Amino acid sequence: SSTSTRIMYTVFLLLGTIVSCLMLWDQVEKSIVEHDPLGIFGKVCDEAGAGDKCELLAGHLAVYRVCFAMACFFFLFMIITIKVSSSKDCRGGIHNGFWGIKFLMLVGLAVGAFFIPRGDFGVGKKLLFAAWMYIGFIGAVLFILIQVILLVDFAHSWNEIW
Predict the structure, then answer these.
(1) Same domain, 106 and 131
(2) Less Cβ crowding at N or C end of the chain, within 10 Å?
(3) What GO cellular component entries does it have (predicted)?
(4) Which of 85, 100, 118 is the last residue of a domain?
(5) What's the pTM value of the predicted model, to 2 decimals?
């Protein structure tokens, strides 16, 4: 059960990564600019002075929105499963099952992220943008430090085995 749960969460992460990569495809970027119901990407392109290269900017903004939805999804389940000691716990059951509902929830979050007005995502609001920037910076630094520690530990363990 634990292995299948890890595989399913990995599949969710892989699907989100694939969708993010697809958002950077030329045809998808052009389609995003052409079918922009809220005018989010067009206004950002005008403010940035992107001109003819607007679809390149729109693709990257779409990736941010998909990744925002994935981060919210995984953060929610992190909060739900804090201090779960057994898979027999009610919250453990939520963690290990309900894959169809979780998939629909992730898709709903990703689609919903495209309907968040641009001002609410930090563009045009300097304070919110600065907060997101610092949160991202601190998170990135912590992530890199943890990865370096794990890499050094792996190299040390591997060296002891050989």
Answers:
(1) no
(2) C
(3) membrane
(4) 118
(5) 0.71
